[in-house]
Write a structure and sequence with these properties.
Elements: H1 4-12, H2 41-49, H3 52-55, E1 68-70, H4 75-80, H5 95-107, H6 115-140, H7 164-181, H8 194-214, H9 223-239, H10 252-260, E2 270-274, E3 295-296, H11 298-303, H12 323-326, H13 332-337, E4 384-388, H14 389-403, H15 408-413, H16 415-421, H17 435-438, H18 449-462, H19 469-475, H20 480-483, E5 490-491, E6 495-497, E7 507-510, H21 524-529, E8 531-534, E9 545-547, E10 553-557, H22 578-583
Length: 595
């Protein structure tokens, strides 16, 4: 009989990343002997439940992407400032999640009972393994594939990277098994079901297919096969009749309900969600999205259409409009994503005033609107989507556009379902190329370029702050967007600025505390109440932001004053931490990260 503690280490330990000297001396948190466990489907259910918290995530921001104007210390900021090296980088430290999954799969052969139920739980475990490897491929490219929890801690653990294409094939085998064997109705939507597996399959196949298409250093085979598989997975979900876009005719409010309500149970758009019930005291930190560390970017704000379906760049002086004017007559999703003039956190006369030192466009999406849902850190009670039907529709539209098979019927069944919810005009085939979008994605060679660009726009605004944007930029080989200097709102001149829309100045941007000449003519009561922000302190030390043209222009950030660099293809990947390559010399650095 194998030692019980060894099995615990295999289930709960880490592969290479946590092979610190003291790791093998740590006591297990839970004693699980496979001889006394994994005997019945109930055992599998109990074990699977223990995997959910770490394996099922619901992102609420787009950190490290061009949807963020300023996020001090983010991975992307460190990267473009050349402050990431194998010696300084983190990551590669969550292999215990994979070990836990493989531990179950190694021992499930002894389980007795309902065969279909056993396959259901095996399918969930294989779904979790595929989800784990999706993150690894997206971050590192080639990675070691482990299909078993190793039975001994020896050199067999220290594998070299496996080719990306091989890992992707293994992932798709896992997802195919999962989609075939997981029950269609599992729990109340918070548990993995058949359509969860199909949603992940669609997401990954679109990612991998377009990554290979646009990246010359990536495997070039099976691009169309992957995109067609994405279409197939989407069609399985769409044809099931289980899901539809949530719309009650309230436009932006219907969109808001997907991110701020106390529950998502019964919402027809939600394929899977995370529950944070106040009755059980299980909460999240979604209040922190609003003005805590970051704001959203001018680039994102400019991406939203006007309410009549035209690009914002068609509005006269569009790139020189002040904060209030920027929100006028726009796609309703803008005011559900970015804190708008007149917003109140407590739904009363006390208006929220964004901070220009973060960029001015504070994130509103995911912020709990009802004050009763906000009780402090770890005490926000909102249901959060993991997969929603809107992404499935966008995936199908993009995959078909990339394949060159998209039709007006496809647009009506996908993108136009989303536009209809917020009362925007429909997208039509043959639309002209928008120069604003064309400048962001210069490597598209597609006869449907105008439509493809609009699908990318729709994906950006519909899925903003849901944690998908960085992978989108990476797969499109759009590193130029990450190299570009992030910008916040436009400031016409030094002096008072109306941020609430009531015609009175709420803040003032001034050169320094001594130079207040630009607000001298304002009424005394207005000057007394306004918040003041300075480009430099009394000693001349620069603040964290400045104005693009010195005394006017978009808000810029001093950390980027000397520019940003994005080295292709190197920066589409991350290096493995140096200590891990020392522990395992077979792990080579790739894509220019070798020192």
């Amino acid at each position: 009989m194998k030692n019980t503690k060894l099995f615990i280490l295999l289930a709960l330990g880490s592969v290479v990343s946590s092979c610190n000297k003291d790791f093998l001396q740590r006591n297990p948190q839970t004693e699980i002997s496979p001889e006394a466990y994994f005997n019945t489907p109930k055992d599998l259910d109990t074990y699977i439940n223990s995997l959910y918290d770490k394996q099922v995530t619901a992102p609420t921001n787009d950190e490290s992407s061009d949807n963020i104007s300023n996020y001090p210390g983010s991975t992307m900021e460190l990267l473009v400032q050349k402050n990431i090296t194998p010696a300084t980088v983190g990551g590669w430290d969550n292999w215990s999640q994979l070990r836990s999954v493989n531990f179950m799969l190694d021992n499930v052969r002894k389980t007795q009972g309902d065969e279909a139920l056993i396959k259901h739980y095996i399918g969930i475990a294989r779904y979790f393994r595929a989800r784990f490897y999706f993150s690894k491929i997206a971050t590192y490219g080639d990675v070691p594939w482990y299909s078993t929890a190793l039975s001994d801690v020896d050199q067999s653990m220290y594998k070299a990277r496996d080719p990306r294409a091989n890992v992707a094939d293994s992932m798709l085998a896992d997802l195919s098994y999962a989609a075939e064997n997981i029950k269609a109705d599992a729990g109340n939507g918070t548990r993995v079901n058949k359509y969860t597996a199909l949603a992940l399959m669609a997401r990954f196949c679109l990612f991998e297919g377009t990554f290979r298409k646009y990246h010359p250093e990536a495997p070039q085979q099976n691009v169309d096969a992957l995109l067609n598989k994405a279409v197939w997975a989407c069609e399985q979900i769409m044809n099931s009749g289980k899901y539809r876009i949530y719309s009650t005719g309230k436009g932006g409010e219907d969109y808001r309900a997907l991110f701020c309500g106390p529950t998502l149970a019964g919402n027809p758009e939600i394929i899977q969600w995370r529950d944070y019930p106040q009755s059980l005291g299980v909460g999240n930190d979604t209040h922190s999205v609003l003005g805590w560390t970051w704001s959203l970017s001018q680039s994102l704000v400019y991406s939203y259409l006007t309410k009549d379906g035209k690009p914002f760049s068609s509005v006269p002086n569009w790139d020189k409009l002040d904060f209030v004017a920027t929100f006028k007559d726009r796609d309703p999703r803008l005011a559900e994503t970015v804190s708008y003039p007149g917003f109140s956190t407590n739904q009363d006369a006390n208006l929220y005033i964004p901070k220009p030192n973060l960029g001015g466009y504070d994130q509103l999406k995911f912020y709990p609107r009802d004050p009763k849902q906000r009780q402090g850190w770890g005490a926000n009670y909102t249901g959060l989507p993991v997969y929603r039907y809107a992404e499935v529709l966008l995936t199908l539209a993009e995959a078909k556009a990339e394949l060159g098979t998209i039709t007006q019927t496809d647009l009506d069944n996908t993108v136009n379902q989303l536009r209809s919810r917020v009362q925007l005009p429909a997208l039509a085939m043959g639309i002209a190329v928008d120069p604003f979008l064309d400048a962001q994605y210069k490597n598209i060679n597609n006869p449907n370029k105008g439509v493809l660009l609009e699908i990318r726009r729709e994906r950006r605004v519909e899925l903003a702050c849901e944690g998908l944007r960085l992978n989108d930029l990476n797969r499109w080989y759009a590193g130029s967007n990450l190299k570009a200097m992030p910008q916040g709102m436009y400031v016409p001149a030094f002096g008072g600025i109306d941020m609430s829309g009531d015609g009175n100045a709420d803040i003032a941007i001034l050169p320094n505390p001594s130079d207040t000449s630009s607000i001298a003519g304002l009424p005394a009561d207005v000057r007394a109440k306004m918040s003041r922000f300075y480009l430099a302190d009394k000693d001349g030390k620069e603040n964290n932001f400045y104005l693009e043209n010195g005394t006017s222009g978009h808000i810029m950030f001093t950390v980027n004053r000397n520019g940003r660099e994005f080295i292709e293809p190197k920066y589409y990947y991350r290096p493995i931490p140096l200590q891990q390559t020392v522990l395992n010399p077979k792990l080579e650095q790739l894509y220019g990260w070798k020192q």
